[in-house]
Amino acid sequence: MTTPDLLGAILRFLLIVPAIILHEISHGWVALLLGDPTAKNRGRLTLNPIPHIDPWGTVVLPGAMLIASTLFGGAPIAFGYAKPVPVNPYLMHKTDPRTGMLLTGLAGPACNILMAVLTAGVVHLIPVSGLAANPLPNQIAQVLVFFAFINLVLAFFNLIPVPPLDGSRVVQWLLRGEALQFYDSLERYGFIVVIAIVFIFPGVIDAYFNVTVYPILHLLGIG
User: Fold this and answer.
1) Active site members
2) pLDDT in tens, 47-57
3) What single DSSP character describes residue 48?
């Protein structure tokens, strides 16, 4: 790996961390709006990254994926996660517990999609003329485009309906009785399933992003 490639991987990693952390904060923020102060009381509604960092999910996993994708010449892609924000649906007195978990679950992907849209808006405000004489605007635009991209990746990856990903909250809201109990029991194997999909069947994830992430990037005018 050349020095520019390494620096690029480090920069992309530094952009992934705030996207992950804001995703988690949004879960706790929506829970607070619904009446549950658990995340607030445990200091998890802060922009300080330290309380949110999971050594494996926030540092090792996304960093390794970025370096590997750079080494093998593929598109720079990674995903990760922070420490889950604690919520208590039974304290969400402004709704019922099932709907509370649905709304708090969807808050993370919604936050990432909103950040992608806002970032795309900023990209369109950057002047792109005279790049040969002043490449800085183009470099800034490239950084922002990646930030929008990684936010969409995090949003749609988390919407995969495999527990404990956020998409599972939608399925849990729809199911009842034994079907719900069976689905909830799968959560203990959820992380294994996710890792298998990503590393053993990467084509599945690529196909999924081809009909979600990339069309939205194109719609936003930055893809």
Assistant:
1) 24
2) 888 889 888 87
3) -
